[in-house]
Design brief:
Helices cover 38% and strands 33% of the residues. The chain contains 5 helices and 7 strands.
Length: 166
């Protein structure tokens, strides 16, 4: 698990550094466009993320991830691999059968997404409201900050490769 995390971190930093170097050494001004408007496949992932988060269906949530994805959102160490992520979603659902997301509004619309080869980086926030049980009071989680690393799949779709929220 440590090797996978180190590889993803090194690949992320190398890609980011390469992108910044190329951007600074070209004569053209940096692009300020949002890749989401140019890539409907990323929009499709965002829509699926919203739908799956609202339903909290473990199968739907797991389908959003690349095979080698890393989820930092669960308590404890990072959850690595699509299979382990699916098991973590199923375990959470089993332990919290009445958990319900009442509102989920991710804010990545004004965030530039830099694409380097087959990777995209998003930084933004999300507003959410949820109930841990039917009798519990709703909990607001406004402006939860996050970073998502997306990986283009061989079919042209995008999946989450790394997600961390704070």
């Amino acid at each position: 698990m440590g090797r996978v995390w180190a590889f993803v971190t090194i690949a992320f930093l190398a890609g980011l550094g390469t992108g910044l170097l190329v951007q600074r050494t070209t004569l053209a001004p940096p692009r300020q466009s949002d890749i989401r408007t140019a890539d409907p496949a990323i929009q499709k992932l965002h829509k699926a993320d919203e739908e799956c988060t609202l339903t909290q269906d473990p199968v739907c949530l797991t389908a959003l991830w690349s095979d080698d994805g890393i989820n930092l959102g669960f308590p404890g160490p990072p959850v690595v691999g699509k299979k382990a992520i699916g098991e973590a979603y199923a375990k959470f659902r089993e332990q919290n059968p009445e958990f319900k997301v009442l509102k989920y509004l991710p804010h990545y619309k004004n965030t530039q997404i830099a694409v380097v080869d087959e990777w995209a980086i998003e930084v933004g926030s999300a507003d959410a409201t949820f109930k841990i049980s039917a009798s519990a009071a709703p909990v607001d989680a406004p402006r939860t900050k996050g970073m998502r690393l997306l990986k283009r799949q061989s079919d042209g779709s995008w999946k989450f490769a790394l997600v961390g929220m704070k």
